[in-house]
Design a protein that fits this description.
Shape: globular
Strand content: 15-25%
Radius of gyration: 21 Å
Helix content: 25-40%
Order of helices and strands: EEEHEEHEHHHHHEHEHEEHHEE
Structural class: alpha/beta
């Protein structure tokens, strides 16, 4: 088996645009590439507005009507999802690739019971009777830690707490035993205690089903606990990638270092909080050159030109003229 065969998903040069009300085409995702191995967790990290969720939706061709995939390939076990007929893509959704959306209250249909929503995927993708699907749905709710699962099958989403809705979403996503789970900010709306429970649940189910996970988040605390490899995304581009140890111990891009410095620490003086100045730019007005240069404390005139991808070591790459602050040493990276 070749190295390439180990990857179940390979994304090459993905480009996504949206058309605004004035019919202007705006590039939101620009040349994103990554691969995921069976059983590993890859974290896609960045602030809101960086293009993380759009990337995940594009993988399953779930973009809004004004969204278009303008370039790239999304290979699922060698087949390009972007060139498949839509009916074949629909057969992949839920059966082989499943998604947990970031807001369960809006992702769950309020007019259908929890049981109906979980069994729908089973009936579509598996050769089971309605009675068998209902039994499996009950078992899935029990597996994700929902009490009285038989009763919950007959309830509507409004009757469940936020944590239980998220567990129901996970049960729905895993009902057909997918090989890849895309988890888009799976704990954003939950309190800290429930967050920890949900993340532990996802890790346990990953081991049980030997799933790969694409974890989309802005929270590096979650990443430290969950991820094997990390992609740092900013303004539609991947600006740094590497394994967890490389990113946390030797962050090369100023944006990555800014994110890490923003994590609250126990030894931090009271009333102090590190943050990255400014905000993520509007996709319609991305800066020229390095897109982070107008927020970067290490800016030089060189940063007004487009940086190239630099290989540091192992699988550690960065998109920066001066990785690891090398301008202070007078040795611009080539």
């Amino acid at each position: 088996m070749s190295v390439m065969d180990n990857y179940i998903l390979q994304v090459h040069g993905l480009q996504v645009t949206f058309t605004d009300i004035e019919r202007n085409e705006i590039h939101v995702v620009d040349g994103v590439s990554f691969s995921i191995k069976q059983g590993e967790t890859l974290a896609l990290v960045g602030e809101s507005g960086c293009g993380k969720s759009v990337t995940s939706l594009a993988l399953l061709r779930l973009l809004d009507g004004n969204g278009r995939i303008r370039g790239g390939n999304v290979l699922w076990q060698g087949r390009d999802i972007l060139s498949l007929p839509l009916r074949e893509v629909r057969s992949l959704r839920g059966r082989e690739i499943a998604m947990v959306f970031q807001e369960p209250s809006s992702a769950l249909n309020p007019v259908y019971t929890i049981g109906d929503q979980i069994t729908e995927s089973m009936l579509r993708h598996q050769k089971v009777s309605p009675a068998q699907a209902k039994k499996q749905a009950e078992e899935m709710l029990r597996l994700v830690g929902i009490p009285e699962p038989r009763k919950r099958l007959e309830e509507y989403p409004h009757a469940l707490s936020g944590g239980m809705k998220q567990r129901a979403m996970i049960a729905m996503a895993l009902s057909c035993r997918p090989r890849l789970l895309i988890a888009d900010e799976p704990t954003t709306s939950l309190d800290v205690t429930i967050q920890a429970q949900i993340l532990e649940l996802i890790k346990e189910l990953q081991k049980r089903f030997h799933m790969a996970i694409l974890l989309i988040t802005h929270d590096l605390g979650i990443v430290a606990n969950m991820a094997d490899r990390i992609l740092i995304m900013y303004a539609g581009k991947v600006v740094e990638e590497g394994n967890k140890q490389d990113i946390f111990r030797r962050a090369a891009h100023p944006y990555t270092r800014g994110l890490l410095n923003s994590i609250p620490r126990m030894d931090q003086a009271k009333g102090t909080f590190a943050s990255i100045p400014g905000t993520v730019p509007d996709p319609a007005h991305f800066p020229e050159g390095c897109r982070f240069h107008n927020r970067c404390g290490e800016f030089t005139e060189t940063c007004l030109s487009e940086p190239g991808k630099i290989h540091l070591e192992n699988e550690h790459f960065v998109l920066c003229h001066y990785p690891l602050g090398q301008k202070t040493l007078g040795c611009r990276a080539k």
